[in-house]
Amino acid sequence: MKSRVTIKDIAQKTGFSVTTISLVLNDKANHIPRETKLIIVKAVKEMGYRPNKMAVGLVKKQSNIIGFVLPDIRNQFFSYTAKVLEDECHKYDWNLLICNSDNNHKQELKHLKMLCDYMVDGIFLSMAANSTEKEVEESINFLEDNKIPYCLIDRDMFDIGKYKISVDHLQGAYLATEHLIKLGHKKIGCITGPLILDDARQRLAGYKQALKDNGIKIDENLIFEGDYSFEKGKIGCDNLLAKNITAVFAANDFSAMGALASIKEHNLIVPRDISIVGYDDIAFASLLEVPLTTVRQPIDAIGQKATEVINQLVNSEENIDSKIIILEPKLIVRSSTKAIS
């Protein structure tokens, strides 16, 4: 494989000094003859020279790169969030570097250190699930000790981060559960996310609050702790169907899809026999055999606000002590729910 072309290679080909070539490439060649510029530009094109962005970044003390460490690229919520963040970053002439922690704290910290070494201008971070309080503190302390502008997205298990964008998940789960109650359902099962996560706890709290506000006794036997996966959604629904529920609130759409598979295996029909509500409104929620009623997270707004926070932290001359923004979810009613006849 041929080695990368350097300014020294161009100097050797053209006979001009490295300083002269550097001035031309950086558009600072005001006192250099036009003919010299043309010779250098021609050589640059012929030799396929590309500037070393790392070296440029060292000089300018900025890389024009923002990192995004996410927990699971397979989860459509995070993959779509990455797409939105990339689009928003382009508005600020930033490139987005995506790292997948696979919900593993050690991998998350490894990515954070790598991004720091690459001198990124800022980092978006969605915490790895099952992180302990000590592990969360380790990640946050690393960012703050190295003075890296950061914004947490959706997850802050122990309310430690100073800069974050999230959604009112309690309200979202409340809307989902209240919708089922208004349709006449009283025996509503709940498949949660991993309850170490703050967003999963908020969704469970919203489910319980809606039941309480509508005079329905909370039955802990109708609550199954999942992990936001298709598999746990299916297992959870298998468990709940044995308890004669009439409806299910699944704390994310992947769990809801697992529940749909379980319902089908039990020869039941949605929504005739069982109503179901998901959470997130991922891309194909509306394309399922029975389009899914779900709670939409405002991912476009999450990406926009998170990027604005990073921009403020990068460019503000004043110290910003904290920036916490909570966005509102929206219930999207489709065909997977119906009133009890």
TrEMBL record:
Regions crossing the membrane: none
Domain HTH lacI-type: residue ranges: 5-60
Keyword Aminoacyl-tRNA synthetase listed: no
Annotated PROSITE patterns: HTH_LACI_2
Keywords: DNA-binding, Transcription, Transcription regulation
Keyword Iron: no
Gene3D superfamilies: 3.40.50.2300, lambda repressor-like DNA-binding domains
MF GO annotations: DNA-binding transcription factor activity; transcription cis-regulatory region binding
Matches recorded under InterPro entries: HTH_LacI, LacI/GalR-like_sensor, Lambda_DNA-bd_dom_sf, Peripla_BP_I
The protein's name: Degradation activator
Source organism per UniProt: Megamonas hypermegale
Gene symbol of the encoding locus: degA_2
